[in-house]
Design a protein that fits this description.
About 15% of the residues lie in helices and about 60% in strands. It is built from 2 helices and 8 strands. An 8-stranded antiparallel barrel has the order 1-2-3-4-5-6-7-8. The two termini are about 30 Å apart. About 25% of the residues are buried.
Length: about 170
């Protein structure tokens, strides 16, 4: 019983001290019809880790959409400044992504060509850079861009984008 209480107290103290953020990527929601939610926890003033979950809402036949139908992205950020309002950062991430890749030109029974889709799941390793604005009331706005490379699948896209304009709240 003492071990459980000690473990619970350690967990509470680690969460109570650190600053945390919840964010929504509004650029994805408005431009490409997908939702991306992020949670970020600061380790120090200069570093944090977080996780993002992106869900693509656009139809497969849409003219402009992400290849990925879903992507879970754990990331680590290093901040190059400790300014209270503006910070610049570099990010390393691992994107676990799944979707459908278009296979063009299969011949059907009538002799015509038929486009089909093949499902894939893969993991991408990548980097991104960005900037973050932190208001004194807790409002957070961050802008970032980067790219990752899928490592394991042969039928998945080679590159995975990591682009966003997040708005959220720090607590």
């Amino acid at each position: 019983m003492k071990k459980i209480i000690l473990l619970f107290a350690i967990c509470l103290s680690s969460f109570g001290y650190a600053q945390q953020e919840l964010k929504l990527d509004i650029a994805d929601a408005l431009v490409v019809r997908s939702l991306e939610f992020s949670y970020e926890k600061y380790l120090t003033d200069e570093s944090s880790f977080g996780i993002s979950a992106q869900f693509n809402l656009a139809k497969q036949s849409a003219d402009f959409r992400y290849n990925e139908n879903m992507m879970i992205t754990p990331y680590y950020r290093h901040y190059f400044s400790t300014n209270e309002k503006w910070n610049f950062f570099g990010e390393g991430f691992l994107g676990i992504n799944s979707g459908k890749k278009e296979i063009k030109g299969q011949i059907n029974n009538n002799g015509g060509t038929l486009d089909s889709y093949e499902k894939y799941t893969d993991g991408a390793l990548g980097v991104a850079v960005g900037t973050k604005y932190i208001a004194s009331g807790g409002l957070v706005i961050d802008l970032y861009g980067g790219v990752g490379r899928n490592l394991f699948g042969s039928n998945s896209p080679v590159l995975v984008p990591r682009v966003g304009l997040n708005i959220g709240w720090r607590f």
